[in-house]
Amino acid sequence: MSAIGVLVMSYGTPESLDGVEAYYTHIRHGHPPTPEQLEDLTSRYQAIVGGVFPLRENTNRQVEALQRTLDERAGAGRYRCYQGLKHAAPFIEDGVAAMAADGVKEAVAIVLTPQFSSMSVGGYLKRAREEARKHGIRLAEVESYHLHPELIDALNKRVTNGLEKLGDDKEGALVLFSAHSLPAKIVEMKDPYPEQLLETSKAIADAAGIGRWQFTWQSAGQTGTPWLGPDILETLDALAREGTKAVLVAPVGFVSDHLEVLYDLDIEAKKFAAEKGIHLERIDMLNDDSQYMNALTDSIAHAANK
Known about the structure:
- By secondary structure, the protein is an alpha/beta fold.
- It has two domains: about 5-145 and about 290-305, Rossmann fold (3-Layer(aba) Sandwich); about 150-280, Rossmann fold (3-Layer(aba) Sandwich), CATH 3.40.50.
- The protein has twelve helices and eight strands.
- Strands 2-1-3-4 form a four-stranded parallel β-sheet, with helices on both faces. A four-stranded parallel β-sheet has the order 6-5-7-8, sandwiched between helices.
- Strand 3, helix 5 and strand 4 form a beta-alpha-beta unit.
- Helix 3 packs across helix 12, helix 4 (about 90-100) runs parallel beside helix 5 and helix 6 (about 150-165) packs antiparallel against helix 12 (about 290-305).
- The longest helix is centred in the first third of the chain and has 22 residues, at about 55-75.
- The chain is globular.
- The two termini are about 20 Å apart.
- Belongs to the ferrochelatase family.
């Protein structure tokens, strides 16, 4: 019996600083960034220790860990993982083509993002579906796994451990759940993204016994149109005015260490919070955590057996 292909999709990141311009151009639908925009993005990568390399390596480790977990759970040879990235090679289409070249006839597509939005996960799945159709591959899809018990338990542990980072400040601390903002028009589209993020956040707060928590948005794009808010910096400003002295950020819309976490939170938000008199810490990311891999494996097996 031939292996079931698993297309593991994520946003993608450049392999080196030399690739930042091509990467940014792809994000901008073929329009090169202005020198100012390129300098801004490049400086953010440079501000992260080690540049962009850890980000790419992290995705590779996640896919390798998922392959090991699938082999352990279903037996070696049952599933074969392929990467497909939205804005960098190997692109989503490359991943599907690689499956076809290996003779894969059935596959499952999954995105390294627990919550579904038609503008994010939905776009990944659409590209995968269209390419799979060209190659005659029957593709099952995982839309979301935002309440999987293993996912919630792994994040519960990270919130509980994260509060310890605040030391004496943890008493009265607020847990601030966050996720990548999207254009505000998704609300009119009845997109499930905001609701699923709140469901994930509440499930973690309940599991961790957290009474004081909020949800906020981060990393909005600069498109000239409204994006979901409030932004985390606005939220931190309001919390400071209310007298909050300690915040634990739990970016539950992300699963790995990358730019939106290592720069937007660890550098930008932390500096802003300190200026406002707030002690800000962040939970450790899931990365290749075994419980996260179990959540992905369960979701893949369920889709494959439908």
